[in-house]
Amino acid sequence: MQTQDSILDTQAWRRSLQKSENYHRHGFGHEAEAEMAVKSEYHSPLIQQIRDNGYIYQSGLVTIHLAKAFGFCWGVERAVAMAYETRSQFPTQRLWITNEIIHNPAVNARLQEMRVEFVPVNGQGQKDFSGVDQGDVVILPAFGASVQETELLHQKGCTIVDTTCPWVSKVWNRVEKHKKAHFTSIIHGKYSHEETIATSSYADRYVIVLNLQEAQYVCDYILASAEEQLERKSEFMTKFAKAVSANFDPTTDLRCVGIANQTTMLKSETEAIGKLIERTMMQKYGVANLNQHFMAFNTICDATQERQDAMLELVQKPLDLILVIGGFNSSNTTHLQEMAIERGIPSYHIDGVQRLLSPHQIEHKPLGQPIRITENWLKEGAIQVGITSGASTPDRILEEVITQVLAWKQDCA
Description:
The protein is an alpha/beta fold. It has helices spanning about 10-20, 30-40, 45-50, 75-90, 105-115, 145-155, 165-180, 195-200, 210-225, 225-240, 250-255, 265-285, 300-315, 330-340, 395-410; strands at about 25, 55-60, 60-65, 95, 115-120, 135-140, 160, 185-190, 205-210, 255-260, 295, 320-325, 345-350, 360-365, 370-375, 385-390.
């Protein structure tokens, strides 16, 4: 099994894996039936009606403004459909998934109803594959899985169904180019997120930065003198203890860097980080030598960008509040919430209609805070409500939320 600091050609390893008769990346020929099943469970006639009406819906005292891009993206819908198809293809075999298929509690609960088991996590936060046996079928989720996990499953003799989003695979290809050029990957992402864990496993050397502030810290270190770097090395390694590759040495490993990202991060911040690091390397090594020290590539996925652009348009409207709907551990949903907060619009991140406790109370997750209950969230009289959702949220969940709001306002009319 490959280790993190291996210099083996992971592209060659992936090609070899894909030739295995136990590896499946494109389903089993029942795509139409699976897609129909997904549509029947998650499609919403009301949401389609709102789309057809220019993304606006008015009923009584309520005007709903729906973002023009929201909900299931192609990669998510593909992953869910492949999971359904896998259950149909292997009706009696034990079926596992290495993580949530997507960050949506309703969809993951439905898979559990279909007898899909989730690989457990032990007390140290590590996945426990001891219960997975030869001949079992294992689904890799839309976020992907690390080289180490995938190779372990392959060595166990499992049938692997890989639903990794192609946009995520695109980032892996970029990181592998960094590796071949002996560049360190600076990854904009969350070090504990499944996608970033998978992406970093394809790198030789890496450091993960959460935001522009952490990227600035890295750049300040790059620009420091050799003596200053040695003095600050211990501080650097403490700060990024969980976010660097094994045996990482910032005094040598930040001389040549490439940019990559978790595909669901905030586009504007990823771009700002890329420009900041580019300027830093020009300042350090000179414009003429930039290509010998810096590699950049935009790997924000189209769906993430479209939803963020639609949110920017939505927050320009005269809204009384915004409901951002999606899993609380969904990175792309969290960034939509962040964009609403920046505009000063009252906004509530919820994962389903069950969070609407009453017309007076809403249970929601403020940005970067624990779940809490807010009073008097739904004002009296006419109200303009913005609605959007993350890429892992089915339309039917939006319909349930909108229907509840309309019902309460009708009762109060």
